[in-house]
What does this fold into?
Amino acid sequence: MPDDGKFGMKKFLIPLALFLGLVIFLALGLQRDPKEIPSPLVGHAAPAFKLFTLAADNQTFEPKEMHGQVWMLNVWATWCVACREEHPLLVEFSKQHSLPIVGLSYKEVQPQDEPPGAKMRPEEKRLLAKQRSEKWLRTRGNPYVLTALDLDGRVGIDYGVYGVPETYVIDKQGVIRYKLVGAITPEILSKKILPLVTELQKT
Amino acid sequence: MIPELGHFALILAFWIALAQGVLPLLGAATGHLGWQSMAKPVTAVHFGLLLLAFLALMWSFVVNDFSVLYVSQHSNSLLPTGYRMAAVWGGHEGSLLLWAFLLAFWSIAVAVFSRTLPLAMSARVLGVLGLISTGFLAFILTTSNPFDRLLPAAVDGRDLNPLLQDVGLIIHPPMLYMGYVGFSVAFAFAIAALLSGRLDAAWARWSRPWTLVAWVFMTFGIGLGSWWAYSELGWGGWWFWDPVENASLMPWLFGTALIHALMATEKRGGFKAWTVLLAIGAFSLSLLGTFLVRSGVLTSVHAFASDPRRGVFVLIFLAVVVGSSLTLFAWRAPKVSMGGRMGLISRESFLLANSVLLVVATGAVLLGTIYPLIIDALNMGKLSVGAPYFNAVFVPLLAPVLFLMVPGVAASWKEAQLHQLVLRLRWVALGSLLLACGVPAILQRMGQGEWLWRTSLGLFLSAWILFGSLKHVLERLRQSGRIPLSYWGMQTAHLGMAVLVVGITMVKGYELERDVRIGIGETVTLRDFTLELKRMENVDGPNYKALRATLEVKKDQRIVAELTPEKRRYFSTAMPMTEAAIDSGWMRDLYASLGDPVEPHPQTGAPRWNLHVYDKPFISWLWAGVLLMVLGGLIATLDKRYRRSSTRVVQA
Amino acid sequence: MSRCCDLFCRLCVLAALLWTGLTSPLMAMEAAPNAQDPGVEARMVHISEELRCMVCQNESLASSHAELAADLREEVRSLIRQNKTDDEIKAFLISRYGDFVLYRPAVKPMTWALWFGPFVLLLVALTAMVMYLRQRQKTLPQAGWTDEELKKAEQLLKDGESA
It folds into this structure.
């Protein structure tokens, strides 16, 4: 076969080279978690809202009330299994640190709680959510300074909530600095959240 | 006892496969005839052992042995026996055992049907297959043993995922795996040829029937998967460009390129190195698919539960197998002799173009599938690549392939004149153009749907293939001489492709859906059909309870069909499943999917339910097209040249 | 007087019932579409087909049965009613869920390789193929096949075919 010169011989190595490149990426990919999605909200102001809280009467809460302090927003619900796992950690954390934790009860009343074919009135929903959440917190401890009720999930959408429980760390100017999707673990608490909080509180 | 027997059989099989891999290859390399001739009997033992293991697992399922962990995870005592048997491949471990079993099956098939092969060649082929089997068995034994015990035994199993409790599960994975694994034979032939240094037309002739049969199974398997998704998932979709689906499409595209390239290599000795590369590539993509589906690197509804250890093992296996074959290729391929003359425009060049285009299309699918992984690995964030990307990129790449189907067949070997081809095909082109513009225009006039350029493109290409093939068949019939079966196989398969494209074009261009809340006695209209909800009843299934709606379908006041969609609650899972009802026809499918109950009627207070109905024109043509391609492939394999019982040794 | 009214009313009701009874087989009630507004619905479906359901294993927002998906579809509907453009709606979701929510990746430097890669590959492949064919034509006449050998080979090949 006529010799096409150096390139002629080398071209047969191209498939191998391409394949090795692919293997490297696949190997790197094995170490990543495809389910871990970074949030675009980090570095942006926490979206504003005004929601009723668990407290009696028609008390409401707005994020701007927390301006001037570093705080944590924890999204939870009584139907959420992973929330039960992280809750003791939160309770422990709230006792040991002065960092305020605000709870956001996300869609406490689910479609299957509503009678088939009929829609619950908002006041009925709020009452049911209040009852269930208060009972849950009484049994498991309440780490929250207050719990806001996001019954229809609109605030959740604004915060990009998709996998309850979720936790946000917000700084004194009201900017989201960290978002965690999934249950808090002692490791995350000590390695990510606490150092960040300490740093933010210095500013 | 039986599961232990199965486990033991697997362990033995590992050693036998290792023997099957090492001895014949060494024998072929050193000229030791004794070791070479061991290949076939060792392969037979290998197959026997794997058959034993496979039957042992199936037995455990049938008798509801919940002390076997895998059985407890994927079966249930209420599960009907048919599904219990199919549940063998319902999960990761069992499906791997199916892989290994089918690999042993193909190996023994090669051993039986290779009487015309020189001993050294068959030894090498079986040796390569043995090495691959060794890898798979090692994988199974170390990370994915289906015979692991669960002690104490579960009282009852977790049940098979209700989505899998469909006839599709019984046939789709075995057919698909027959295809995936079947490409290993073409791969083995390619490696054997590279090892021996004998890359000639004979190699192509030997490879071709095996490749064809694997391709037939792959086509059938993918088509089945698509049909199954359509009938089972409840909203009428049939292809989602999901990573697992792409994992099966990529080897299929390469396999199609391979059978066409083999044609040129066989007849004219053309581009042998390229064909060998395609053979290596097709099986590599099968292995890559295995990796993608089982390692957890990609999110998919179809993905098996993942374990990083498994991912690492498969990746290493993939790297070793493909890496060594490509190294062998880079070393040996340059020494391969060139084939005969081929003109810039000739059947060979069209076949080459076909395979090049298919490879590019595969590259596009691969790029889209792993791009999120690449971006993530480079720490550049997370993004999704879904159907809109694939549709935008794949269709323009496939269009030239479809177009070339006609001149490719019409062109003569070695040299063809472009202007002659254009002249011969001008009426075909005109006819196709007329159809492509006429049909959508008329349909738009009739108010059936907008005229989209996509529709015209699809119709043009399918008409082009149809008319072009017809013309060629007529011309061929007029010539003297017997027409080989492979010719009829080719034309049937090409016709199948045309039919498939028609189906896809029409369904995408003209499908209609209605999403309503319906009560008893109410109707919903879909084109010229009226569907009335006659009644709702509770039904009991073997392992579920269902709410069944009966819809009476009328056209021109006559009852033409009855649809009974169901909403099922399986005892084992909390999630309700929807069982769509389909009325199939040549011109359209009517598809109904029952939803949840909603608010009662505001005036009458009668109960109502969500109902989703679809009119899907020509969707049966998708399945018909696939079946025609399968039939075409089968006809081609029956061609006499592959059934030669004796070799005629030709002295050059 | 009131008794006549009463009777009259009853007769009317009876007549009305009879009337609906007689005509209902011809006037079966049409089921109500789930969508309040077909135009809004069509646009919503078109947009959400290209969006990813964040809580599913690779399903589109249009087809997913997940609760969050239903909520987001409702959100898209309300944004459509506010006359937002498709791009604005997508931007709304991206700002909350990230690029991951788009099934059609945006064409930006990070995705140039993705969008243009296949076509670059096509060009490279076709060029390589044409170059190969041209080069082959140039070098082949030097291959050592005599006419006699060619004829013999062709004869053998023909015998090998079944046609």
